Amino acid sequence: MERKKKFNVPHVYILLLVLILIFSVLSYIIPAGQYDMMTIIDNPETGHERTVVDPDTFTYIESTPVSLLQFLTAVPRGLQESAQIIFFIFIVGGAMTVVQETRSIEAGLGRLINALKGKTWVVIPVVMIFFSLCGSVFGMAEETIPFIPIFVSLMVAAGYDSMTGAGIVLCGAGAGFAGAFINPFTIQVAQGIAEVELLSGMGFRIVLYICLVLLAIAFMLRYAAKIKKNPELSVMHDIDKQREDLIDLGDLPAFTGRRKAILVVFCVAIVFLVYAVITWGWYMDEIAALFLAMSMIIAVIDDKLSFNSYAETLGRGMSEIATGALVVGFARGILVVMTDGNILHTILNACAGFLSQLPSMVSAIGMYIFQCLLNFIVPSGSGQAAVSMPIMAPLSDLVGVTRQTACIAFQLGDGISNIFTPTSGYFMAGLALARIPWAKWAKWILPLIGLEYLLGAIFVVVAQVIGLQ
Question: Per-residue DSSP letters for 332-377?
Answer without folding.
Answer: HHHHHHHHHTT-HHHHHHHHHHHHTTS-HHHHHHHHHHHHHHHTTT
